[in-house]
Design brief:
Length: 316
């Protein structure tokens, strides 16, 4: 059900929509995009997000972008590892630690009470349909939208099991338009990701075991998975390269999202596309926020002349 509008816009003003796409850790690039738009005097009237785009979009609309940026820039590998609550029931990560932290550090409120219209996209796991979350607690909407299949456990909301919105609408241009946007800026985080995870990598000397202090997120995830499997009484082969499974999941998700994004945007193209170059940023490298934010800013700055021209045409 569409809630009544609590955000009137002056007659004749072009309503700008910002569609923030999914992309896991690459989503911190959305912060750089928003900063660049603000520097150019461009403030979206409507914000929609899928997956990590829903998280950043909610923080932005809720007036929490500054503390979010401060927090993500402070993230280190071990901090990210601490949020991995291992599970084999629906996904490798329950996600409760991450969302618990988000709830405790950022203001939760009903979506309809936020400063401007906001919507998040999730997927109904049983029916396979797209779900637009435009009312209720914003944290619940974000948690449902980021439930990446195989990694985060699904979320039960209003009697339905919901997973990541990237399965059906990775860049929610259509939701922005449905909410009244006249001009839509879309941020696609996956344009240069196809097949990246399966490209040959430098050969490393074999190791008999993972060090007590993991050097990479893949090593850290391996330690967590092996510990969880041991607790569940599941044997694993010593020295097996478990992260290879994560590479397969990541590449499969990339292929799916790229293909779906191309299809959806062909039918409902945005007015301006912002496409940060993030090929070297891994699926869960949340601790590399500065790299993503800088890439987002550069991509948005490159798109601003076209955006200004489109705005001039709309308002002329």
């Amino acid at each position: 059900m569409k809630p009544p509008s609590a955000h009137p816009v002056p007659s004749g003003k072009t309503r700008i929509g910002l569609a923030l796409g999914g992309g896991s850790a690459r989503g911190w690039a959305h912060i750089g995009v928003i900063r660049a738009l603000a520097d150019a005097g461009i403030e979206p009237d409507i914000v929609c997000g899928t997956s990590i785009g829903a998280l950043v979009g909610a923080a932005y609309v809720g007036g929490e972008l500054d503390p979010l940026e401060t927090w993500v820039r402070s993230l280190r590998l071990q901090t990210v590892v601490s949020f991995l609550d291992f599970s084999l029931n629906g996904g490798l990560i329950k996600g409760e630690k991450l969302i618990g932290f988000f709830r405790s550090h950022f203001v939760d409120r009903d979506i309809r009470e936020m400063a401007r219209p906001f919507g998040a996209v999730a997927t109904d796991l049983r029916r396979g349909r797209e779900v637009w979350l435009r009312e209720g607690p914003v944290t619940d909407a974000v948690r449902a939208s980021i439930a990446l299949p195989g990694l985060f456990t699904p979320v039960q909301l209003d009697g339905s099991w919901l997973v990541d919105g990237g399965l059906v609408n990775p860049v929610p241009v259509s939701l922005c338009r449905a909410m009244g946007a006249d001009l839509v800026i879309a941020v696609d985080l996956n344009t240069d990701r196809l097949g990246h995870h399966l490209k040959p990598k430098p050969v490393k000397a074999p190791r008999k075991h993972i060090a007590a202090e993991p050097e990479t997120l893949a090593d850290a995830v391996m330690v967590r998975i092996q510990a969880g499997m041991s607790q569940l009484g599941i044997n694993h082969e010593a020295g097996s390269r478990v992260p290879a499974m994560l590479d397969v999941v990541a590449s499969s998700i990339n292929i799916m999202q790229v293909r779906i994004t191309r299809s959806r945007l062909a039918g409902d193209p945005p007015d301006v596309m912002v496409a940060p170059l993030l090929a070297d940023l891994g699926l869960m490298e949340f601790h590399r926020a500065s790299v993503a934010i800088d890439a987002g800013r550069r991509a948005a700055e490159a798109a601003i002349p076209l955006l200004q021209a489109r705005l001039d045409d709309s308002n002329g």
